[in-house]
Each structure stands twice: as structure tokens, then as C-alpha cells.
Amino acid sequence: LLATYLASYNYLNSSSYINLGYIPGGAAGIYNFATNPTETIPVDVEGNQVWSDRNSFLADTRLLSDFDAMVILVDSSETARVWIEQSRLPLGATPLLMVISAQAEPMVLPYYDSKQVQGIVTGLFGGAYYEQITQKPATARVFWDAFAVAFFVAEVIIVVGGVWALIAAWQARLARKNEEA
Q1: What are the start-end ranges of the H helices in 71-138?
Q2: What is the mean pLDDT of the segment spanning 90-115?
């Protein structure tokens, strides 16, 4: 599924990434992966040896700090926190970048402010903005446009409802005055 999605938007060809799958064990599993990735997940989701296969671009990689950057995609502030806290030290000078949901931003922002996370893209707006500055359009912009239209429709409904309530209150006041007279 990941390969199909990435290929459909021409982000990467299948020789540019490896799907290592799920890391079991919560915080301990993430720490184990951060300190010893080759032993924690020796094969990809298809069962291929990725760290020792000479054809793999991970063949000469032994530590996470060997990468140019580590990008974590999460939707939960708790998962983001665990990744930051368990992998920051083993990464050394390697930048930790995060793609997070808007709801996770308030909890991740202090890590960004303290330079434990070197870059974040947050929520739908952040994704649309990233697509705009990289000139690689994908789905975030489409969803952002739909969100903007829905937000505009909601605003119109609120204004119409407010005007309607104002007119109804004005008519009720006129009816009371007519009854009193």
C-alpha cells in the first residue's frame, strides 16, 4: 500500500525506500531500534535482508546516526514524545524531523523549541504549505481546498442563522409591542 501510494505521486521509486514494518515493544522497542536497528528489524516486510544485502542502500548502515536525517510520521503526541525521547541520543547530530497531526503540535512544539526536533510539518495546513514550497503537489492541497470550502460554508450558515435569529427576535418584539398597544 505504501509503495503504491508513493509511486502514484512520484515521490520515490521503490529502490529509494524500504518498509521495515512495525516495531513492537513500545518505548523499549523504539529505543532498541534506535540503538541497534540491524538486530531489532533485520528484514523488511517482505522478508528480505536489508542491512546485509549488498544490493540494498542500507548495506553500509549500522546506526541511525549514519542517516542524513530521520523523519517520523505520527498522529499521536504520545507516540511523537516516545520517538523523540528514545531516539534523540542515539541519533547524535543527525536531524530529527517530524510530520505530525495538528492535535499533536502543542505537545511536540516544546521539543522543537528546545532543538531536540529540528523540523516539523504540522497538520493539513503544514502539509499544504510544504507542498507549495517544494512545488510537489499531492493530496494535502486538495484536502486543504476542500476544508477551506467547508469552512466558508459553515461561516455562511452561521451568519444566515444569526440574521435569521435577529429577524425572529425583532418580529417577536414587534408582536409584543402590538399586543401591548
Answers
A1: 77-91, 105-113, 123-134
A2: 90
pLDDT in tens, 116-147: 999 888 877 777 777 778 777 667 666 767 77
Tell me which residue has cell 531516539. 87
Kindly report the backbone phi and psi dihedral angles of residue 43, in degrees, each rounded to the nearest multiple of 5, phi listed first: -130, 160
Q: What is the mean pLDDT of the chain?
A: 84
How far is Cα 99 from Cα 134, in angstroms, rounded to an integer?
A: 15
Percent of the residues in the chain that have a pLDDT greater than 90, as a whole number: 31
Whole-angstrom distance, CA of residue 105 vs CA of residue 122: 7
Report yes or no on whether pTM surpasses 0.70: no
**Start-end of H helices in 12-138:** 26-35, 37-40, 77-91, 105-113, 123-134
SS3 content of the chain, % helix, strand, coil (to 5): 55, 10, 35
Angstrom distance (rounded) from CA 129 to CA 77: 21
| Residue 21 backbone class (left: φ over 0; alpha: ψ -120 to 50; beta: rest) | left
Q: Residue 137 contacts by C-beta under 8 Å, 6 or more apart in sequence?
A: 131
